[in-house]
């Protein structure tokens, strides 16, 4: 009976550590929930994506094809911030990707399919090789990224992704928390080189990639390889 109660407690604690990215802002006030960020399938449960081949890997949308009601203007070279509900509750890397909306589409109608995504940020752990591994995003209630100043002006999807590695020692154990914001980039130079760095979601990751299938605790890891392409920079 005590063992059963302990399992129930651990399951509840794990669920409470789950999270979403419902609001965002740049230089203005924080948006309303799901205002220019597409409502995610986990907006109530806060649960993760665990199948990296799932169509949910694109934007984890509740209703694919509907888009968010608004698109936020953000200047190239400025910061964009997602709020976290309630906070980053598990250890693992944070990634940001962008996809340029093609001609004939808007940020609200673009489905984000195909090899259109380029990475603009990734972080990693400190303390590798010790018993005190930490991640820059641990416990954050907001996560931010600086948009490259060399982006081409126009509408984009901005995809945040946090990969929780606490259960990633077996295939399918990594937990991915994802959301996509609809933004209109202004003032960029258009010189960003994404050659060889465009990927699709799903498709960019395999379940056996070393940054997805990862033993966080023992043996103590001495390296970490972020999954996906290299960061596209100016």
Structure, explained:
Its cofactor is Cu(2+). It comes from Neurospora tetraspora. Strands 2-10-9-4-5 form a 5-stranded mixed β-sheet, with no helix packed on it. The protein has a 3-stranded antiparallel β-sheet with strand order 1-3-8, with no helix packed on it. A two-stranded antiparallel sheet has the order 6-7. The chain is built from 1 helix and 10 strands. The radius of gyration is 18 Å and the shape is globular. The protein starts with a helix and ends in a 48-residue tail after the last strand. Strand 6 and strand 7 (134-135) form a beta hairpin. Mean pLDDT is 93; it is low at 1-14. It has one helix at residues 2-16, and strands at 24-25, 72-75, 79-83, 94-100, 117-122, 125-126, 134-135, 142-146, 154-164, 175-186. By secondary structure, it is mostly beta strands.
């Amino acid at each position: 009976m005590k063992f059963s109660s302990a399992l129930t407690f651990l399951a509840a604690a794990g669920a409470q550590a789950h999270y979403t990215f419902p609001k965002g802002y740049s230089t203005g006030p924080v948006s309303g929930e799901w205002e220019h960020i597409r409502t995610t399938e986990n907006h109530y449960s806060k649960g993760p994506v665990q199948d990296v081949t799932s169509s949910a890997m694109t934007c984890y949308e509740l209703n694919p094809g509907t888009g968010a009601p608004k698109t936020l203007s953000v200047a190239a070279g400025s910061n964009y911030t997602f709020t976290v509900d309630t906070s980053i509750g598990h250890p693992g890397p944070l990634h940001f990707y962008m996809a340029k909306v093609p001609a004939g589409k808007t940020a609200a109608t673009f489905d984000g399919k195909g090899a259109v995504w380029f990475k603009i940020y990734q972080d990693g752990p400190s303390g590798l090789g010790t018993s005190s591994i930490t991640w820059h995003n641990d416990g954050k209630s907001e996560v931010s990224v600086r948009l490259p100043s060399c982006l081409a002006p126009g509408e984009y999807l901005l995809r945040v992704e946090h990969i929780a590695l606490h259960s990633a020692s077996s295939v399918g154990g990594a937990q991915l928390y994802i959301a996509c914001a609809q933004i209109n980039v202004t003032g960029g130079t258009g010189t960003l080189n994404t050659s060889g760095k465009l990927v699709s979601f799903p498709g960019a990751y395999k379940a056996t990639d070393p940054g997805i299938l990862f033993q966080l605790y023992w043996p103590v890891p001495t390296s970490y390889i972020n999954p996906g392409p290299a960061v596209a920079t100016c």
